[in-house]
Amino acid sequence: MKAITYSAYGSPDALEYGERPEPKLGPDSVLVKVRAASVNPVDWKILGGHLDPVLDAVFPVVPGWDVAGVVEKAGAAVTEYVPGDEVIGYVREDLVSRGTFAEYVAAPVRTLARKPANVGFEEAAGLPLAGLTAYQALTRHLAVRPGDKVLVHAAAGGVGSLAVQIARSLGAEVIGTASERNHDYLRSLGATPVAYGEGLADRVRAIAPGGVDAVLDLVGGEALQGSPELLAKDGRLASVADGAVKELGGDYLFVRPDTADLTALSVLVERGELKIEVAAVHPLEKAADAFRESIGGHTRGKIVISVA
Fold it and tell me: Is the pLDDT assigned to residue 308 strictly greater than 90?
């Protein structure tokens, strides 16, 4: 099969396009014919060796954790799926080796859910990791309830744009930080946009005089450090970008594969309550370009790799 690989940590220049053996199929997995995958910041952070302290890498590595595709074969113990089923998945395992930037991936069933029927594979591929991150942060770590005021830092990005919509589906009022060029986009998602940077606290207080009930930080650094002063009494804080959130009394989140959560997201997409913005689509052989675009930052929505 055709796949993207790298044989040592490095930059996107280390990515190679070529032939790899089709992955072996374990009893609790299905072989997915990949139609599309998406690039997340964690992919190039792994490539750069930044997660080596917590995740073993078996080289050559096929990168990628997001997938949308069609079940080709089912493992001996699998009853959830049959060949021909369309699925999405956050295919993270306990080590880094056989990812989704390939024509086929052997995906444990615990990482999969059925693909939303009303969107194509490229759009669906942008949902798993980003959607699960937003969903788990808002429902588990921040316990967002109807009527809450929620602030999302970097609200126009891949995770942020989904977080805005999910928070709205939970009945919350949403304020989102973004550059001026993305303010109309955030309004279209149902959020009140504010510019980030100096004076942010005053801008947020003008909208929520008593402070916000929850802050979801997707940036870290100064944005995170300034977040506690934006909270109402008993407000909640969570970050997916900076472990220093624990020192501020908040929760740090590393997203987990979860079929039930992924299914809930799929349902929101089918109801029209959740839309995935696709910023760019690159063919598999141009995966390095997709990595570079992601590294550059300031992308609105998701960067997708087409494998069809």
Answer: no
